[in-house]
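Dear H.,

Thanks for agreeing to be a second pair of eyes. The structure we're designing against is below in token form, covering all 167 positions.
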């Protein structure tokens, strides 16, 4: 199963050491979409690099991951009191409806059951909240069950053009 590839302790330590983190500029672009910056959830957080970055901007940040070893590694680097971690799958987030300002998936979305995760993110996001799918690759296609896939992918391409001058 793909979502079980990163569970070993050695891999989690290497993930923390070598995984590329989003730039401050990219994080700031995500933050600019938000009216409030109270609570964030970093889904598929791995060893916690993105969770740590978000902690500078939110009162509370929760990193979630399926892997106990990744979360153990993340806890070793969580030096701020506003960071917590929870073990769960991305498609079943342990948060109330409309309770989160920002949901991120940093280099993890490709591992998820995408339609189920998108529904779950929609459920937990507050009105006017933000879902940020950050990835190394710019050619990721999104799909939705309600027929809006083309529109969603068109918006993503427009954002890429506006931000980076590329498709």
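And this is the sequence the design step returned. I haven't edited it by hand at all.
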């Amino acid at each position: 199963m793909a979502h079980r590839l990163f569970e070993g302790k050695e891999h989690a330590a290497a993930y923390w050491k070598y995984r590329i983190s989003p730039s401050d500029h990219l994080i700031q672009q995500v933050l600019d979409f938000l009216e409030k910056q109270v609570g964030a959830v970093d889904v598929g957080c791995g060893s916690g690099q993105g969770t740590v970055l978000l902690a500078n901007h939110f009162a509370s940040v929760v990193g979630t991951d399926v892997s106990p070893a990744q979360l153990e590694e993340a806890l070793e680097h969580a030096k701020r009191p506003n960071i917590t971690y929870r073990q769960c799958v991305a498609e079943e987030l342990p948060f109330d409806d409309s309770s989160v300002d920002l949901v991120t998936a940093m280099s993890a979305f490709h591992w998820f059951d995408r339609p189920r995760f998108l529904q779950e993110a929609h459920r937990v996001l507050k009105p006017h909240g933000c879902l940020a799918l950050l990835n190394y690759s710019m050619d990721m296609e999104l799909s939705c069950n309600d027929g809006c896939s083309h529109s969603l992918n068109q918006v993503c391409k427009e954002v890429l053009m506006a931000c980076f001058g590329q498709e």
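Two observations from my side: The first helix runs from residue 9 to 18. The CA atoms of residues 56 and 88 lie 24 Å apart.

Warmly,
E.
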